[in-house]
């Protein structure tokens, strides 16, 4: 069944390629999100673990150059989202050095207005997870806001979880991978980082059986920018 967003006039505008190509930034509009009640158990809910690669670290100014996400149901992968994005600006050599993504790879890729609504559809109805989710949520919020899309998700920060639950000096993704003896398929590319984040998350859940409902996860949630 089509969602409210798919049925909206804004989604129909998005599908009109002539209109989308007529303006560099299309105002899409609409609302996307997923919220769960505190007393609901979370283990049986779908999880979407996602990661953005970007042109910089300032969430208000940077642009997304890659979206990667994997949807899990009962810890099994059921769907995957992976897309490079033309940010409409040059990527610096520093970002290329970190991510391996250069300007040649982004040439001819779709712009954010052609990709982000589809990512919202992918994320809708699931528990969102990101490592250092403050950054990823900031990027999602500001990129969505520029397109006129409001969003509100239940989002868990695996870094907050690790800082509270894993007794090691550093809780960077690299340190957690070493702690749990995990190997990256590719570091600082979205899907490679997500696969490790997923295994870190399952390990933390297994080590902390007291975490059962969304209320138990309250200290580890990441609010939308502007929320407390």
Based on the coordinates given, report the CATH architecture: 2-Layer Sandwich
CATH topology (fold) name: Nucleotidyltransferase, domain 5
- Fraction in helix: 25-40%
CATH superfamily: Ribonuclease H-like superfamily/Ribonuclease H
The level 1 CATH classification is Alpha Beta
Average the pLDDT over all residues and give the rounded result. 87
Q: How large is the count of helical segments?
A: 10
Q: What percentage of amino acids are in beta strands? A: 15-25%
Q: What is the CA–CA distance across the termini?
A: 34 Å
> Number of DSSP strands?
7
- Regions with little confidence, pLDDT below 50 for 5+ residues: 1-28
- Placed side by side, the strands forming the largest sheet appear as 4-3-2-5-7
Largest sheet: 5 strands, mixed
Question: What would you note in describing this structure?
Answer:
The chain has 228 residues and is of the alpha/beta class. The protein has one domain (46-220): Ribonuclease H-like superfamily/Ribonuclease H (Nucleotidyltransferase, domain 5, 2-Layer Sandwich), CATH 3.30.420. It contains 10 helices and 7 strands. The chain has helices at residues 4-7, 9-15, 17-22, 93-99, 103-106, 112-123, 133-146, 158-165, 173-179, 190-207; strands at residues 31-34, 47-54, 64-73, 76-84, 127-130, 150-153, 155-157. The strands form 2 sheets. A 5-stranded mixed sheet has the order 4-3-2-5-7, sandwiched between helices. It has a two-stranded parallel ribbon with strand order 1-6. A hairpin with a 2-residue loop joins strand 3 (64-73) and strand 4 (76-84). Helix 8 packs parallel to helix 10.
């Amino acid at each position: 069944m089509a969602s409210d967003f798919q049925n909206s006039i804004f989604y129909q505008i998005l599908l009109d390629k002539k209109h989308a190509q007529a303006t560099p930034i299309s105002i899409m509009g609409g609302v996307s999100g997923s919220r769960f009640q505190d007393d609901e158990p979370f283990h049986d809910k779908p999880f979407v673990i996602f990661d953005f690669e970007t042109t910089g670290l300032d969430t208000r100014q940077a642009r997304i150059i890659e979206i990667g996400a994997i949807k899990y149901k009962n810890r099994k992968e059921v769907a995957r989202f992976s897309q490079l994005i033309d940010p409409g600006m040059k990527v610096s050599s520093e970002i290329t050095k970190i991510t391996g993504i250069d300007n040649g790879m982004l040439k001819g890729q779709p712009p954010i207005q052609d990709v982000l609504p589809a990512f919202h559809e992918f994320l809708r109805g699931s528990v969102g997870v990101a490592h250092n989710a403050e950054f990823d949520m900031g990027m999602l919020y500001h990129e969505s806001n520029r397109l006129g899309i409001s969003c509100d998700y239940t989002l868990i920060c695996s870094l907050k979880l690790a800082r509270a639950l894993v007794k090691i000096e550093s809780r960077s993704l690299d340190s957690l991978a070493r702690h749990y003896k995990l190997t990256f398929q590719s570091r600082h590319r979205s899907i490679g980082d997500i696969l490790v984040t997923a295994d870190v998350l399952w390990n933390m859940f297994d080590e902390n059986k007291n975490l059962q409902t969304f209320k138990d996860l309250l200290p580890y949630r990441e609010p939308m920018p502007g929320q407390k």
